[in-house]
């Protein structure tokens, strides 16, 4: 699924009106009806009280449509107009009249704090104050209203986007945003839903298809692409009937130091589970017995040092190398890395301490093998690209870094984002149960194992992140978030693969 900017959505809106020969009023009725249907399906006429707060633009217009439809279907509804400006949109005004005609009275006009209504915790608030047309930070009594609604403890359903949030621009004031319990967004989700600073205001969201022009949506280059099951199915490469272990490559995992040999165990196991034909682990001497007994399928090579890596040598041609998990930052390890990078054309996955070493020895950036996949969590990313002002600034910095060094960067997090040149791929699988030690090590093994099988760097990254997250989701379904451990994620890579083709993802709406 594609993510479009607010500007692109306005363009799509315009094209839709022209091509479908409909009025903007009809499109608003369509959008409002979708929201109403969503609510009706869940509420089934329940006598709960709705408070609908409408701004004076088209988001407010949507709110008025929803209000009218709810009233016509016998719901207990109070509609308020947040009268922050006299400049009302045309479709707001049309629906303002329509709701008056339907109910025989005007909605309550709010002009300041004195007009704030009483809201009980078991009421429902529909937030239609601002949509993607927000052009400045809410202030004054409107900001106070937003805070008042957030404090109410009532369930807040945001229309299109929580008011105060921009679709694709940074947040100025954390205190001036509706904290929605659920968001119903039109046609495609907005980029701010997926970034840590802004996504927290959105909570769960559903995308409602309002029938914007499909041709426009298909041909327009999006801001980002969401990776879900449908995309992952397309990326998957089938295993050949006459394939042998050589066909699926030989992954070299260079990982571990004294006390952190587990990182090598996890990454090696993950590389096998994702389908690498062979896996060799290169570890300090102290890791030898551990690897041999915990991953008997793997071959093991050891460094001359007992507790850390100092010289990386091997006598075969790996098809991919995963390096960095738990290696520490010993001086000897730094020069071992330098040598390895300089003399290698093998596809690399670079993680953890290898990333920290690069950040602290910037000259290493010059020898970074092209098309490497880097897998930083936010702390490691800061070392690589420097501090960022906000999440949007972060994305720009990573794009620049990716372009400059010719590498794929996986920004790990709740919605992991893979960056390659100017392109963003947002992963849809995964859950907070994966916030557990070693889950990143297993991701490195997964991506290295895919590179071994011949997936190119970008595909290995994007597909690997999806499958890893899906395995985490299946693990969490079985064990709960808290009990899920990295080895459970690895243990469910098999289920994640099977799930890829087992059943269709419940798709409520066809999407671009
Ligand atoms: N695109 C589509 O395909 C479809 C879109 N639809 C809907 O339209 C929504 C977009 O509507 P929109 O463009 O009218 O803008 P909206 O978000 O209602 O707000 C703009 C108004 O608020 C004002 N304003 C802004 N910031 C402010 C602030 N901080 N504090 C105070 N005022 C502020 C600004 O006023 P002004 O700057 O002129 O003072 C302007 O009047 C979209 O989210 C979706 O719900 C659907 O109906 C159908 C298909
Ligand atoms: N809240 C979350 N939702 C989804 N995925 C998460 C969440 N928290 C962490 N993860 C995933 O778990 C992994 C954690 O990686 P990392 O921080 O490197 O762990 P470690 O270094 O302990 O192995 C990443 O793949 C990340 O995307
Ligand atoms: K809204």
UniProtKB/TrEMBL annotation:
It catalyses: (6R)-NADHX = (6S)-NADHX; (6R)-NADPHX = (6S)-NADPHX; (6S)-NADHX + ADP = AMP + phosphate + NADH + H(+); (6S)-NADPHX + ADP = AMP + phosphate + NADPH + H(+). The keyword Lyase applies. (6S)-NADPHX binds at residues 58-62, 131-137, 160, 263, 326, 377, 441. Keywords: ATP-binding, Isomerase, Lyase, Metal-binding, Multifunctional enzyme, NAD, NADP, Nucleotide-binding, Potassium. It comes from the Bacteria. Residues 228-500 form the YjeF C-terminal domain. Pfam families: Carb_kinase (PF01256), YjeF_N (PF03853). Its cofactor is Mg(2+); K(+). PROSITE patterns: YJEF_C_3 (PS51383), YJEF_N (PS51385). The keyword Lyase applies. AMP binds at residues 412-416, 440. K(+) binds at residues 59, 127, 163. Its EC number is 4.2.1.136, 5.1.99.6. Residues 9-218 form the YjeF N-terminal domain. Binds 1 potassium ion per subunit. Catalyzes the epimerization of the S- and R-forms of NAD(P)HX, a damaged form of NAD(P)H that is a result of enzymatic or heat-dependent hydration. This is a prerequisite for the S-specific NAD(P)H-hydrate dehydratase to allow the repair of both epimers of NAD(P)HX. Bifunctional enzyme that catalyzes the epimerization of the S- and R-forms of NAD(P)HX and the dehydration of the S-form of NAD(P)HX at the expense of ADP, which is converted to AMP. This allows the repair of both epimers of NAD(P)HX, a damaged form of NAD(P)H that is a result of enzymatic or heat-dependent hydration. Belongs to the NnrD/CARKD family. In the N-terminal section; belongs to the NnrE/AIBP family. Homotetramer. This is Bifunctional NAD(P)H-hydrate repair enzyme. It comes from Aequorivita aurantiaca. The gene is nnrD.
């Amino acid at each position: 699924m594609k993510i479009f900017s607010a500007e692109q959505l306005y363009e799509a809106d315009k094209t839709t009106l022209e091509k479908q020969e409909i009025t903007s009023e009809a499109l608003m009725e369509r959008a409002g009806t979708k929201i109403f249907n969503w609510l009706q399906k869940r509420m089934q006429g329940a006598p709960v009280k709705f408070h609908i707060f409408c701004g004076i633009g088209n988001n407010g217009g949507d709110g008025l449509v929803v209000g009218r439809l709810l009233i016509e279907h016998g719901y207990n509804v109070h509609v308020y107009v947040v009268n922050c400006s006299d400049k009302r949109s045309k479709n707001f005004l049309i629906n303002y009249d329509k709701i008056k005609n339907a109910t025989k009275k005007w909605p309550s006009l709010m002009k300041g704090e004195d007009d704030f209504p009483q809201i009980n915790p078991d009421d429902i608030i529909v937030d239609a104050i601002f949509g993607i047309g927000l052009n400045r930070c809410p202030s004054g009594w409107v900001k106070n209203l937003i805070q008042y609604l957030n404090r109410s403890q009532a369930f807040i359903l945001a229309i299109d986007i929580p008011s105060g949030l921009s679709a694709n621009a940074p947040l100025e004031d954390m205190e001036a945003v509706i904290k929605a319990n659920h968001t119903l967004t039109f046609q495609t989700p907005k980029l701010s839903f997926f970034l840590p600073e802004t996504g927290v205001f959105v909570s769960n969201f559903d995308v409602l298809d309002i029938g914007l022009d499909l041709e426009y949506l298909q041909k327009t280059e999006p801001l980002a692409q969401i990776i879900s099951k449908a995309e992952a199915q397309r990326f998957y490469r089938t295993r050949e009937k006459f394939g042998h272990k050589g066909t699926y490559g030989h992954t070299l995992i260079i990982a571990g130091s004294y006390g952190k040999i587990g990182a090598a165990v996890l990454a090696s196991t993950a590389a096998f589970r994702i389908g690498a034909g062979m896996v060799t682990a290169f570890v300090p001497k102290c890791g030898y017995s551990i690897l041999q007994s915990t991953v008997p399928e793997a071959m093991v090579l050891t460094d001359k040092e007992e507790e850390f890596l100092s010289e990386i040598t091997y006598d075969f041609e790996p098809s991919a190398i995963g390096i960095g998990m738990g290696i520490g930052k010993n001086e000897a390890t730094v020069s071992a890395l330098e040598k390895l990078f300089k003399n290698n054309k093998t596809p690399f996955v670079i993680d953890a301490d290898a990333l920290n070493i690069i950040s602290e020895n910037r000259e290493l950036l010059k020898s970074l093998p092209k098309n490497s996949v880097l897998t930083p969590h936010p702390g490691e990313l800061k070392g690589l690209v420097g501090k960022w002002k906000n999440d949007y600034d972060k994305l720009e910095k990573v794009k620049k870094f990716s372009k400059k060094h010719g590498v794929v960067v996986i920004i790990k997090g709740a919605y992991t984002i893979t960056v390659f040149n100017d392109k963003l791929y947002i992963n849809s699988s995964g859950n907070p149960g994966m916030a557990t030690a070693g889950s990143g090590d297993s991701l490195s093994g997964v991506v290295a194992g895919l590179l071994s099988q011949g997936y190119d760097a970008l595909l290995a990254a994007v597909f690997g992140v999806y499958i890893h997250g899906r395995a985490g989701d299946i693990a969490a379904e079985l064990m709960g978030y808290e009990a899920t451990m990295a080895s459970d994620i690895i243990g469910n890579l098999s289920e994640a693969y099977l799930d890829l083709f087992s059943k269709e993802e419940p798709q409520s709406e066809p999407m671009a």
